[in-house]
Amino acid sequence: MKRREFSTFVGVGVGMSILPAALTACDAQTNDNATADSADAASGNSFEEVGNVSQLEETGQILNEELANGKALVIKDPANAEKIIAVNPTCPHAGCAVTWELDQQKFLCPCHDSEFSSDGKVLQGPATEPLTSYEVKLEGDSILVKTT
Ligand code: FES
């Protein structure tokens, strides 16, 4: 084997032996990031998208029942058109789903007629606890809520 052929042979061999280690290192880094994202979600530092402002303008409310940590009913604050409110629509009395009644500007429970203000406070029982409110933020047209 000539010197040039030997150098090429050794070079390819070294490259092939380093490649799996390099791929493993990249994979470990990717997994570290995934673990960090999961830790953020588990620690409650994450927001989830429930819909977008255009949709809210069109329908007056957005119900998203597919969030990782529950459901969210999103409305525009009747007292401040710039503000968006998000609550868990599960009635604290016995677990029925409340609806937002725009004409009455309150949440109503169809099961036992509890009523809640736009910010979730009890207006009429039998419920004694307010609706759970969520922190809301906007990213472009997207509405995000923090459910944990
Ligand atoms: S479940 Fe809502 S008032 Fe009873």
Description:
- This protein is α+β, with helices and mostly antiparallel strands.
- The protein has two domains: 1-45; 48-146, 3-layer Sandwich (Rieske Iron-sulfur Protein), CATH 2.102.10.10.
- It has two helices and ten strands.
- The protein has helices at residues 3-42, 53-59, and strands at 48-52, 61-67, 70-76, 84-87, 99-101, 106-108, 115-116, 122-124, 133-139, 142-146.
- A six-stranded antiparallel beta sheet has the order 1-10-9-4-3-2. A four-stranded antiparallel beta sheet has the order 5-6-7-8, with no helix packed on it.
- A hairpin with a 6-residue loop joins strand 6 and strand 7 (115-116).
- The chain is globular and about 40 Å long.
- Residues 6-43 have low confidence and may be disordered.
- The structure holds FE2/S2 (inorganic) cluster.
- FE2/S2 (inorganic) cluster (FES) binds next to loops.
Gyration radius, in Å: 26 Å
Q: How much strand content do the residues show?
A: 25-35%
Which small-molecule species are bound to the chains here? Answer: FE2/S2 (inorganic) cluster
User: What is the CATH architecture annotation of the largest domain?
Assistant: 3-layer Sandwich
- Count of helical stretches: 2
Average pLDDT number? 78
Q: What is the CATH class designation of the largest domain?
A: Mainly Beta
Uncertain stretches: 6-43
Distance between the termini: 67 Å
What structural class results from the helix and strand content?
alpha+beta
Level of helix content?
25-40%
The quaternary organization reads as: single chain
Shape verdict: globular
Q: Looking across the biggest beta sheet, what order are the strands in? A: 1-10-9-4-3-2
